[in-house]
Sequence to fold (412 residues):
Amino acid sequence: MKQSQLFTKTRKEAPKDEVSKNAELLIRAGYVHKEMAGVYSYLPLGLRVLNKIENIIREEMNAIGGQEVSMTALQDRMLWEKTDRWDDAKVDNWFKTKLKNGNEVGLGFTHEEAITNIMTNHIASYKDLPIYAYQIQTKFRNETRAKSGIMRGREFSMKDLYSFSAMQEDLDVFYEKAKQAYKNIFERAGIGEITFVTFASGGVFSKYSHEFQTLSDAGEDTIYLSREKGVAVNKEVLNDEVLNDLGLTRDELEEVHSIETGNIFKLGTRFSAPIGLNYKDENGEQKPVIMGSYGIGPGRLMGTIVESFADEKGIVWPESVAPFKVHLIDLREKEASDTLYKKLTDAGIEVLYDDRDQSAGEKFGGSDLLGMPYRVVVSSKTLASGKFEVKARKTGEVLMLDENELLNLLNT
RNA sequence: CGGGGCGUAGUAUACCGGUAGUACGUCUGCUUUGGGAGCAGAUAGACCGAGUUCGAUUCUCGGCGCCCCGACCA
Fold:
């Protein structure tokens, strides 16, 4: 894409009241627009990142048998009363509104009720199970205090998968597959090395749930981590019994701050029982379906990536989620730049081409802020040498490559 | 929801009880071109409401909004 066509602009200064690094950089770079506290619009570059993250998630969910659906934001009060989650005393972050006829409806903050209700139309026998359904959809949560930029918003995108199994053992098997799929997602999104499976409170149907916690000073959570064993325990549940369960000692644990980027949870019959989602087993006996839920927030993941890798000059995207792989900078050699732009895009490489008539410093500063993995410069200097200058955003490493070498590097 | 801070051009800020100045941005023109360039000109602003006052952007009260700490995060 030619940058002259891109309507967003980069800014040198951050809004004064924006403290969180992810929001400051994403706003300065023009990836997002803040609509109000905790509510952000995604602009062209930001949407490209979000889509890439969502596609990674989508692929991993499909790989474990997930079937994609899209449920409504508007939720029926009656359904939520069945599970005792309508009352504000039980769930305090509902957004509620009224239909013209006065009936109350809510904006979904999660979709266990909705999906369970849908499944009552499709599950009758053990032969119908298992079913894994997921969506990537907008959630609404009336947070008393939105904070940390796009990390904790009132309206945000979320991938939520729900599993429906006949037996507890089936759930246990799938749960482990989902855990692995989540690991794959974080690995592919570039934060695998700093993301740890973390034991957290489980509720009535299982002793523990598992959170995926990404190390970050900006994190709201405190966890106790054993880097050696690759496990962590959320501070909320840390006690001697838990340590004993997990075969850990306090000495080997390190207290760190982290961002909860994902959460998987065994629900058991918490929702299927009150809503009446049952199946008939081999003996014709009616039993409630065993459920699990698996959540991950693409927007929060995007913010986490910014927090994790940004440096003093701006954002640094991992290749897998960068809006473009290459930022091509033309320094007054338009013809040669145009030619290279065409060759790169023809080779299937995603290129943001800064073809604007701006000063070199402005282009470089903007490029560092935007954070594409590779910056390629075309100038009289590079043309004289017969090569192109390639700079890796992450390492700062600069290479002078001819056209073939450049295509080889960028095609891998 | 408790506590604290703050609302002045698109952004960041300054001054002031007598209707607002600067920088960046944006627009025009010329010059410039390897780290957010220069000159000239232009554009654009006091969150909303009430009160005090001859006069309020400034003082008072209320509302709305934003940020931070805490609580909360099903």
Notes: The domain at 3-309 of chain A is CATH 3.30.930.10 (BirA Bifunctional Protein; domain 2). Residues 386 and 402 of chain A are 7 Å apart (CA to CA).
